[in-house]
Design goal:
The complex is a heterodimer of chains A (about 80) and B (about 170). Chain A has about 80 residues and is an alpha+beta fold. Chain A is built from four helices and four strands; from the N terminus they run E-H-H-E-E-H-E-H. Chain A has a domain of about 50 residues: Arc Repressor Mutant, subunit A (Orthogonal Bundle). In chain A, helix 1 crosses helix 2. Chain A is elongated. Chain B is about 20% helix and about 40% strand. Chain B has about 170 residues and is α+β, with helices and mostly antiparallel strands. The chains are: A alpha+beta (about 80), B alpha+beta (about 170).
């Protein structure tokens, strides 16, 4: 395992399933992964930990709120020119 | 990216779900579970999702931010008009960001509408804005942030600087 991610092989060993099973889990989107290249996939460590604990994803509701101004963009630009935009 | 009202709700819940499935701990408004979609006086819809990525036992968390705004197209649909996808990696001391905002200003200044930021260490950059590629949607934005987080710290010098005036560089 690199610092922050697992390979398919490492996940297979950790979950005690086959390499192909992990590949299918990634393909189905069950296990979120980062495709680095056609052959290389990284599973972020926090994603695997969440999967292993079986923590369900909350069913969230979207609430619409009327405001004078919406989300602020460009706050982190930090350039004088952009502040004048 | 064009989307209708009903699908915008589905999209927002899908984006939040993807963040959580990647292991990002969402910081939601104080009363809990709901996601907020803000509507301003001009009918622009916007949202902001903030979350933290835990780096193993390291108490230093990385912060992930996803912001998007959708302007009304006048036919019952909205067009994504602004976005910001941000990663602040405190443990490795860098910031990466993918932005679309103030498109008219950027077009007049640099003949582009999107740009990126790269600071390593945080707060230090050779360039205020770097050339970037458009990010298709928040799903792709989140993937770009997680790809960055799982990789070695970025080499900002490998990016192309947009700012033409060396005197403005810090």
């Amino acid at each position: 395992m690199a610092d922050r991610w697992y390979s398919i092989k490492e996940v297979a060993e950790r979950l005690r399933v086959s390499h192909d099973t992990v590949g299918r889990m990634v393909g189905r989107g069950e296990l979120p992964a980062i495709r680095v290249s056609e052959r290389i996939v990284r599973i972020p460590a926090p994603a695997l930990e969440r999967y292993e604990t079986g923590t369900p994803v909350a069913a969230r509701r979207v609430v619409r709120r009327r405001v004078g101004r919406g989300v602020e963009f460009g706050a982190a630009e930090g350039t004088a020119d952009l502040e004048r935009a | 990216m064009r989307i209708d009202e009903r699908h915008l709700d589905v999209y927002l819940t899908g984006v939040a779900e993807l963040l959580e499935r990647y292991g990002v701990g969402l910081r939601l408004p104080s009363d809990g579970e709901d996601l907020e979609l803000l509507e301003d006086d001009e009918g622009v819809l916007s949202f902001e999702l903030l979350g933290d990525l835990q780096d193993g036992p390291d108490p230093t968390r990385a912060t992930v931010v996803v912001r998007e705004a959708f302007s009304p197209a006048g036919d019952g649909t909205w067009i994504r008009s602004r976005y910001e996808y941000e990663l602040l990696d405190r443990a490795r001391d860098y910031r990466r960001a993918f932005h679309l905002h103030f498109p008219e200003w950027f077009e007049s200044a640099y003949m582009v509408v999107v740009h990126e930021h790269c600071e390593r260490p945080v707060g230090h950059s050779d360039c205020d804005h770097y050339e970037g590629s458009p990010v298709r949607d928040a799903y792709a934005g989140i993937e770009a942030l997680l790809r960055t987080w799982t990789a070695d710290p970025p080499d900002c010098s490998a990016l192309r600087c947009l700012d033409p005036d060396p005197a403005r560089r810090t």
